[in-house]
Amino acid sequence: MPDPRPERRARLLDLLEQHKAGAMAVTHLPNVRYLSGFTGSNGVLLVTQRGARLFTDPRYDIQASQECDCSTKICAGPVWPELAKEVRRQGLTALAMESDKVSHDQWLASAAELGKPVRLKRAKGLVEGLRVIKSASEIEAIRRSVRLNSKAFQQALGKIRPGMTEIQVAAEIDYRMRRLGAEGPAFETIVAAGGRSALPHARPTNQQLKANQLLLVDMGASLDGYCSDMTRVVHLGPPPARARQLYDAVLEAQLASIAEVKPGAACAQVDAAGRRTLRKRGLDKFFTHSTGHGLGLEIHEGPRIGRKPEGVLRPGMVITIEPGVYLRGFGGIRIEDTVLVTETGVEVLTSTTKEFLVIPT
Ligand code: GLY
Ligand code: MN
Predict the structure, then answer these.
(1) Which of 264, 280, 274 is nearest to 336 (CA)?
(2) Which CATH superfamily is domain 5-131 in?
């Protein structure tokens, strides 16, 4: 398979031309990684018609030369004076920068460093726009991440018992991910028991699990830089009828949204399908977030699958479908899969069962 990075940079340069800037300083690290391969924590990638150059610090001297397919500049001090020198050397008069990713102070400092003849131009979401459509090798990487995540869930599930704390369950999950080869979790693992499952983004606590409780687990792995994302709700002991009804309602909503996923479908239409099924049961008002999001090198990427009319699905997009209902005092149910938009429809990448699983107590 050919190295995708030169092609990605060429496409970025095409976009930059449309924005009347011949060059860009890429600061957002996932974008730097996408365009150059660099995975360090400090680096700015200068992309110009003459090529690309990564500016980083001496900690990354060896790593940058191993990872990048472009030239590298190791800066003894801050990177910006060196980068500005290169911009002036190439005679550039306009430089695009990710205005939504740098602080106001950083923007002003960069402008001052570049000096008057070089104009900084706001460029938002250009690289993210390229990243929305995944290549075959990126899809394969996400597939492997999803597989690993499901395996870690399966392994951790066998360890869950009443008396464990939410934090201990999260630790078990994170440990399993790493044992299976992940770099780590793609985001802080969510484990929420009982009434706390009504908090869509609960942080695990030292609260102990008890029999006859819901348990919500939202987890994702990062493998070779690529994320997965899955939510499952299980019950400690046999679930009461109300929990089962809610579970079935959320599952119906999730399947309705998945059924809408195909090239050309409006993201809002995918969101509406799930919401509609919940409305029939009077539950839509408890579905308080959007249906899903793209994922890849980051856990939250475009497209957004929500109520707003924000574009259409295209083949190669990888998104989550994760409706949920959250009842104060009772608990919450969310069911989330990672799915691929194919040429003809949808492929659900997550293989973990969506049966309402029961943990023996
Ligand atoms: N699964 C975490 C999130 O989507 O925010
Ligand atoms: Mn998610």
Answers:
(1) 274
(2) Creatinase/prolidase N-terminal domain (3.40.350.10)
